[in-house]
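pinging the channel bc i need a second pair of eyes. not urgent but kinda urgent?? the chain im working w is below, pasted from the shared doc
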Amino acid sequence: MPVMSGIAPITALAFLTAGFVYGKLSGSVGSIRRETGTLMAHGVKELGPVIALFFFISQLVAYFQRTNIAGMLAVWGASMLQAINLPIPLLLALLIVVVAIMCARGDRPVGQRELLPDLLDAAQESPEGTRICTPASASASANCAGGGASVMR
C-alpha cells in the first residue's frame, strides 16, 4: 500500500503544519528561521528519558528472545498451576486478593497520581510553618479556604 509506506512523512508534515499555524496564531513563534533550532531542542529535550527507557526495554526484549526465558517461565508456571490443582474460581479469587493487596500497599502504576489527587496532594507544611495549599487540598480542606498564612501553589 503506497499510503502506508509513506505514513511517517505524511504524519510529520501534518503535525509540523498544525504546530506552525498554532505558533503563529498564538504568537509563541516569531520567526521560523531564527527559532527552529530552539524549538527542536525543546521538543527533543523531553524525549531523552523516554529514549533511554526504550533502549533498556529493547535490550530486555532481545534478551528474552535470545534465551527463550519467557517460554520457559510460561511452561513452568502452567505446570505449577496444574500441580496445585485448585479450582478455577478459587484461582481467580486469589488473583483478585493479590491485586487488592498490591493496590492497598501503594504499588500503583504511574497514572494513579492523577486519579487520586485528594489523597496524594494533602496540605504540606513549609519550612517557615506557612501552610502551602495545593488546588486539590484547597477544595477539600477548610484550613486552605483563605485567610492569612495560606499560599496557593
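so Residues 122-130, 145-153 have pLDDT under 50 and may be disordered. and The chain is about 70% helix and 5% strand. — does that match what u expected or am i reading it wrong
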